[in-house]
Amino acid sequence: MQEKAQLLRDNDMIEQALVHTERTVSGGLKTRRKDLTIVLLLASNLLSFMLLLGLPRLWSHLPPTTPDPTSTSNASNMFSPAPTIGMQLPDTSSPAKLELALTASHGPALVSELPTHPVQFHWSTAYSSPDDSEADDLWNAIDTAHGYIAVEHEWARERGWMASMPVPGDETKALYVLEGYHQFHCLKIVRTVFLQSIAGKELSYPVQHARHCFDYFRQFIQCHADPTPLYTLGRHTSGDGQWHMCKDWNALRDYATENSACFRDRVGNESLREQFGNCEGLENDGVIA
């Protein structure tokens, strides 16, 4: 009987201890919830106060709701690629503006009004003669430096041309290269590297330069996407003898002559400055047109 009574007393003590623990934990949680609520209220009030003080200043730095077409920092430009130094990105907000911007950025620099005339394309010409000496003479005669032109900075800016480096020795003018001559420059490099490679000779140009030229031609071909339908009479003869309407290279040559930067390819160890100021013999670029 005494053991049973002791067991009942022990159970009562355990139950009282559990009740006390539950009340303590519950009270602690309530206290913590109360403390957390106070902290959140204080933080909310502090944030509201800071916003009231700082919102006007923050708002003044945000882009306007209605974009300013004359501004270079409006919201529509936030997702545009950052232009490189001297690069003028066209306005692409509408097809009409894009066409106008591209026309303005081209300007007379591209001589877009060159006269055109029919030219017959052939599978083989003197430039692809199996007589290497004959073909080499023709290719070596092409003077790609003829395509360097110089115009006044302000004149170029008024026509939307991208800013370019000043002409060494004449800071008042900007230096440009007509793309047709740059294409000839790349074509001559590719031809030289190709012939030297198959002959097992030391290359005159780094291979990476030739790779650049190949990729440049790819970009140019994709850009122009020529849809001319070439007739075919058998293997390897597509378009042989077919007529094309082409821009007059002679007119481009004359334009380059009239605006010449008097540049020549490097001779020996001469400096960049010494490559300019060579205005003799500018009438001919060596291209047979």
Automatic annotation (TrEMBL):
Coiled coil: none
Ubl conjugation is among the record's keywords: no
Organism whose genome encodes this protein: Zymoseptoria tritici ST99CH_1A5
Name the UniProt record assigns to this protein: Uncharacterized protein
Family affiliation: Belongs to the ustYa family.
InterPro entries in the cross-refs: UstYa-like
UniProt keyword terms in alphabetical order: Membrane, Transmembrane, Transmembrane helix
PANTHER family in the cross-refs: OXIDASE USTYA (PTHR33365:SF6), YALI0B05434P (PTHR33365)
Membrane-spanning segments: 38-59
GO biological process: mycotoxin biosynthetic process
Region (Disordered): 66-90
Domain of life per record: Eukaryota
